[in-house]
Amino acid sequence: MADKYKIQGGTQLKGEVNIGGAKNAVLKLMASAVLAQGESKIYNVPDLTDVDIMLEVINGLGIKTSHDKKEKSVTIDATNITSVTAQYEYVSKMRASFIILGALVSRCKEAIVALPGGCAIGERRVDFHIKGLEALGAKIKIENGYVHAKAPRLVGTDIYLDIPSVGATENLMLASVLAEGSTRIQNAAQEPEIIDLANFLNAMGADVVGAGTSEIVINGVKQSDLHPIEYTTIPDRIEAGTFMSAVVASKGKAIIRNVFPAHLTFFTDKLIKMGASIKLIEPTAIEVSCKNRLNSINFVTQPYPGFPTDLQSMAMALLTTANGVGIITESLYENRFMQVPHLLRMGADIHQDRNHAIIKGVKKLTGATVSASDLRAGASLVVAAIMADGTSIIENLHHIDRGYENFDAKLTALGANIIRYSEETENTKGFKNESRV
Fold first, then answer.
1. Is 119:92 a contact under the CB 8 Å cutoff?
2. What is the Cα 402 distance to its own chain's centre?
3. Which CATH class is domain 23-222?
4. Helix, strand, or coil (residue 165)
């Protein structure tokens, strides 16, 4: 039976929480390990369903893998590849797995990869990926829901992306590693996960320059230049931002560890403008607190280093009870406001007009039964439930499980009244203040 969260709001979060490895980085590192013959090992790997899906994609290529959840590591032995087909069964579940296309084309000179799936947050076309691969010399056919790419010879070239697509940047980086000559990706994505990918590739023997800027140059190397490595993934900035939001929402005070504060500069600045206090106490630890009612702000989601679209829904949850009126403009995905109808059920005052949301702060939210429609919308409903009066039920946890490891356990450790249960074993035991339900 499907699991649900039962959350009793009104408790201040206090204590410490450790952030796990970045989901949006580790999935791409796993695909990159396919490039080098031999056994690579990646550390700081979160235990997420998305990681399991990527392992299935890689296993389907005939590559040996293992996942040590206690050690938080995955091992990928890409000595031999027996198939160049990434099956629809797995790729359709998670868009990030589409990056296997660039890795296979680079190493095997051929790839058959299902068109991607994942959260239904809007149109995320693959034409930038396809055009870039064709510019490198690949011949592409799209048939029966699969992209079939053949590239007996890849030659470096200049590629300009119409938008700084993270997925296209990553796919083209992988495809260019073994290309002849140099490839220059202009208007490239600049996310920290792009830098992590470049660092991984360079440690493996590739030659990537400029990651983190709008222009990345990949100087092609030979297959014999690549070797397996051990590598530790960066912390997950979106998980960190989610816990920052939860602490602020509860008017609590907590230390968030294993975070790179520089990756959250824009988001942190907005929280401070709303009235939160955020202090750097160690190079990889921040103290987050909030005492008073927040103030409304306006913001537009933008590619990094702008306001991250993955934290837009968390900010919206905070704005629902802030002083004044806030306006959010979602510039990246047309369906990224899927949390709105559920926040309305909890008493929020939100008017949506296409990619704009106008949020008028109300005195309080009240508990309700709501449903996670996608990964980040689901997380925002958890934040909203923590700040609401009464009890909330959150359904469709499989979306949240894609991006948050032990989410309820971490929140419980901070003092949240949250339990996870299935319909078969439904009970309310575990709440600290049962009389408040």
1. no
2. 9
3. alpha beta
4. coil
